[in-house]
Structure formats: structure tokens, C-alpha cells
Amino acid sequence: MFEIKDSVSLYKQIDLTKVYLYHSLTHYILIFSYYVVSIHILWVGINGK
Q1: What is the pLDDT of residues 1-39, one digit of tens each?
Q2: Cα dist from 23 to 11, 12, 20, whole Å
Q3: DSSP codes, 1-49
Q4: Helix and strand totals (H; E) in the chain
Q5: d(CA 21, CA 14)
């Protein structure tokens, strides 16, 4: 019984780690795309003049 509880808590810990990694990954992708769009707008604005 104790071993089953142990593996369940371990599984939950792994699951939380996956969720955390997924969230931080999407966060970095959002920041990256924001910078790409900003640089693109600046580039178009500079070349447009």
C-alpha cells in the first residue's frame, strides 16, 4: 500500500513538472514572437520612410 502511494505522489510530481515546463515554454514562445513582431514593425517603419 505504501509503495502505491509513493508512486502516485511521484507521478503527480512528474505531472506538475511537465505542466511547469509547458507553461514556461509557452511563455518564452510568446515573448519571442512579441520581439519578432516588434522588430518586424520597426524594420518596416525604418524602411518605409
Answers
A1: 556 677 788 888 888 889 899 999 999 999 999 999 999
A2: 18, 16, 5
A3: -HHHHHHHHHHHHHHHHHHHHHHHHHHHHHHHHHHHHHHHHHHHHHHH-
A4: 1, 0
A5: 10
What's the grid cell of residue 19? 505542466
What pLDDT score was predicted for residue 47?
86
- Locate 1 and state its grid cell: 500500500
Backbone angles phi, psi at 38, to 5 degrees: -60, -45
Q: How many residues does the chain have?
A: 49
